[in-house]
Specification:
Transferase(Phosphotransferase), domain 1, two-stranded antiparallel ribbon, two-stranded antiparallel sheet, 33% helix
């Protein structure tokens, strides 16, 4: 499924189009038994303004803006998503890495909320269906190599393998310049030659002890 979705994103990028909302909910299996990218309304050409209403569920770190706060403030309002950002392939590549992680590991990438950009607790009156979850956006805004180390450990512990961890972690680099330059680069990654189509595990991989009981370097995965 993931490889098919990657090919769909590749086709869009080859046409100069950024999807901007690559999530599990935007992927569907059709009667021909093929997985396809859905939710096409709202896509933008590369370089055009992409609204946070579109990208918020898969926003990358560069979509976070910081505000000066007064002494004594709680800090909940010091961070938000930009209303728009330039549509770029790097945004979809981050979103694809997030999709890979969540599909293979089975839990949200950002632990403080499953849905970045939506805060159901503050939306009882229905007046603002896109109230931002400041806590989750803050977590995204400080995304760094410590987060990547956590991702790598979890991917390896799930027996996805070091090759899979390499692909996912590079898609999730905080600096967009450090991510794969294109979906072609992602599709040519050796992970696809070693993974099981049914489980996503690399051949020969086995679950390993928890990272809490061992040490693990990040060097080979640094962005």
């Amino acid at each position: 499924m993931l490889r098919t979705i990657a090919r769909g994103i590749q086709v869009l990028h080859q046409q100069g189009i950024v999807h901007g909302r690559i999530t599990l909910e935007a992927c569907g299996k059709f009667e021909d038994n093929e997985w396809k990218v859905m939710d096409l309304i709202g896509m933008q050409f590369i370089g055009e303004a992409l609204s946070s209403m579109r990208f918020s569920p898969c926003a990358p770190p560069e979509a976070v803006q910081w505000f000066d706060t007064q002494v004594g403030d709680e800090g909940d309002a010091d961070v938000d998503l930009y209303e728009t950002i330039p549509a770029s392939c790097a945004l979809d590549i981050w979103a694809f890495g997030k999709l890979m992680y969540e599909a293979l590991i089975g839990k949200p990438l950002l632990l403080s909320s499953p849905d970045l950009g939506f805060d159901d607790d503050n939306d009882d009156d229905g007046d603002d269906n896109h109230t931002h979850n400041s806590r989750t956006i803050h977590e995204l805004g400080i995304w760094d190599e410590d987060n990547l180390r956590h991702v790598i450990n979890e991917v390896e512990e799930a027996a996805i393998g070091t090759i899979g961890a390499d692909l996912i972690s590079h898609c999730l680099c905080p600096d967009p310049e450090d991510r794969p330059v294109s979906m072609e680069e992602i599709l040519s990654h050796p992970y696809w030659k070693t993974c099981s189509p049914s489980t996503g595990r690399s051949s020969g991989s086995r679950p390993r002890p928890s990272s809490r009981t061992r040490s693990s370097g990040l060097r080979q995965f640094e962005c």
